[in-house]
Specification:
The chain is mostly helical and 386 residues long. It has 15 helices and no strands. Helix 2 crosses helix 3, helix 6 packs antiparallel against helix 7 and helix 11 packs antiparallel against helix 12. It is globular, with a radius of gyration of 29 Å.
Length: 386
Amino acid sequence: MLTPTGSSSYSNSSNSPKTGFWEGQRLAKLRAYEKQAKKKKIKLQDLAQFTQQLGSMLQAGLPLISALDALQEQTSNPVFQIIIRNVRLDITGGTSFSDAVKKYPNAFPNLFSSMVEAGEASGALAEIMEKVSGYFEESVKLTKKVKSAMAYPIAVISLAIILVNVLLIFVIPVFADMFKDFGAELPLPTQLLISTSNFLKSNIVYIIAGIIIIWSILSRLLKTPNGKILKDRLVLVIPIVGQLSQKINLSRFCRTFAVLTRSGVPILRCLEICGTASDNTFILDASNDIARQVSQGGQISDVIATNAYFPTMIKHMMRAGEQTGNIDGMMHKIADFYDVEINNTVAALTSLLEPILIVFLGIVVGGIVMAMFLPIFQLSSVAGRN
């Protein structure tokens, strides 16, 4: 494991050519990791582990500098090691923890830096780190559930695409050459299949290049503001998938809001973080509307009541939370409710997709095989009548 330390680590101390070579390689890697530190995004699972360990160390009474030093040694991600080291050095130089982590927005999201800032202001950094780690762990679990549900259909569809292309490019031409000797007109399905095979075999390079170009253009367009709006609207109207996406976004919004408000983050800052953390234009617009209403002395429930993206249940529970002064508690309950709904939806989607994909694969492959053997069946029937 690479163990980056201070700037003195870049000095050469060996006269041996062999040792000097490996030292040069190590220093080159360290310089590369230094360049990636500002740009590389840290996995949520690594950040959750870091936050949980940091909270536990602070709870045990370990100073922040010592805790960061220990975490730097324990972290397996070399880029994250560099980031933790730089944060520790900044704090040693007099910078606050929140200001130090704000220098690395790709590694530490707004939620983390805001929670750290609230912990520093309240003197309860250890307790707040525990809350943040719980939030990250829930997010990791949710992400894993969705990814595991999508892994099977993606694998089956990929297998079907590969199998169909192998049949069309390598198998169908063999049968096409054999059918030329029949001297009879081929059935329409077989003619279409051979024409498709010839087109694919002649233009496969252009097709692959076109797919790559179209994919890159769409990826860039979907990153634009209008592209994000279009993507979110299209996802919302897809059966089952749209409902699942909405529940995930609502759960994330409610849990983020609850964790931030319970930790003492100002409400306008909470709404700003909730909007950016959701990566959904519906939630972002709702967060901006709520912030505008609250800044003018209004209630959160008033905006949610007029927003069609939020179900009726959230509207009623939010109003009840405002009346009882327990908004964060109500938000936690809503998030827990939607987590259960997400689990049920993912389980139903997985059980529904499996037979559909098997039938789809059977129809595609079976249709190709039937089209290939139709001329042989016709010749057999003609030979039988003669």
